[in-house]
Design goal:
8 helices, Alpha-Beta Plaits, globular, about 290 residues, Rossmann fold
Length: about 290
């Protein structure tokens, strides 16, 4: 049997949180996907890693960054497909989230018992974002669990920047009837479709490739999850508020930009209901009152 095709990893170093924020935003612009953030043990360097299936595209983006940020020590290396699988097996472990969710890597589906009262969500992240390990995804899942626990069962909700579709899958597991899940990356949407199959979800999640900077759903939703990044959330604030009729959960926000993001939405009429953060990332819970 042939090994899977290699991936290409572009590693970009940042020496301060501010530099990391600038580089992250530029990588998102160039790659149409969020880089994975890795910190060294002494935390003197933050590595941002982006993953590519084509060497040519990886080289082009490396060259663009080299021209825009002279002196940046960029690293581009191949990663055999088998090593990528090994990477996830080492870094992605089962995790209980909230009161009723348990996220399980698909390769551990037969090894991990699920405690009574919890719903198992199987995930194989592939190249997409969303395992529940990162604060931004975990915050959305915790809020989903809390809303469902309060009896909120919207007929249809919106998952913007769905990545692996972990939020939409968890919503269906908790009894939400219907989700529209979109991402601008076709690779992520394909991986999300595989995750639906893993969880034996055949209906109730509408997956679409959609670039929210160019188009937006025409329908409205009682609940909207937007796990994107701070700058884009601020740019999309009017559209997000237009399609949300009640509860808006925002994530992918760096702590240093949380106040600015909140201010944009509250000035447009939303009411902040709460927030949570770790040392670097933040999530916001807003309500829309017509």
């Amino acid at each position: 049997m042939n090994d899977p095709a290699p991936l290409w990893i572009l590693s970009v170093p940042a020496h301060t949180p501010e530099e990391a924020e600038t580089l992250q935003a530029r990588l998102i612009d160039l790659c149409d996907a969020s880089p994975v953030e890795l910190e060294t043990v002494d935390q003197r360097v933050i590595w941002l890693e982006s993953y590519f299936e084509e060497e040519t595209r990886a080289c082009l983006i490396r060259d663009v960054l080299a021209g825009e940020f002279p002196g940046l020590e960029l690293q581009l290396r191949p990663c055999p497909g088998r090593d990528w699988t090994t990477f996830w097996r080492h870094h992605f472990k089962p995790r209980e989230i909230g009161d009723r969710l348990m996220i399980v890597p698909e390769w551990m589906r037969d090894e991990v018992p699920v405690p009574p009262g919890r719903e198992r969500v199987l995930v194989n992240p592939g190249l997409s974002f969303g395992t529940g390990d990162h604060f931004t995804t975990r915050y959305c899942l915790e809020m989903l669990d809390r809303l469902a626990g309060q009896g909120m069962l919207p007929e249809r909700a919106f998952d913007a920047g769905c990545g692996s579709a972990i939020i939409s899958i968890a919503a269906r597991k908790l009894g939400w009837p219907s989700m529209l899940a979109v991402d601008n990356d076709p690779v992520a949407v394909n991986q999300a479709a595989e995750n639906l199959e893993l969880n034996r979800i055949t209906e109730g999640i509408d997956l679409q490739v959609m670039d929210l900077t160019r188009e937006f759903p025409r329908e409205t939703f009682p609940v909207v999850f937007a796990n994107i990044y701070g700058g884009l959330l601020m740019d999309l604030a009017p559209q997000l508020l237009r399609i949300c009729s009640h509860t808006l959960i925002l994530s992918g926000i760096r702590v240093i930009e949380a106040e600015a993001v909140s201010s944009v939405f509250t000035q447009l009429g939303a009411v902040e209901q709460g927030s949570d953060a770790d040392h670097e990332w933040c999530g916001l819970h807003l309500e829309v009152r017509g």
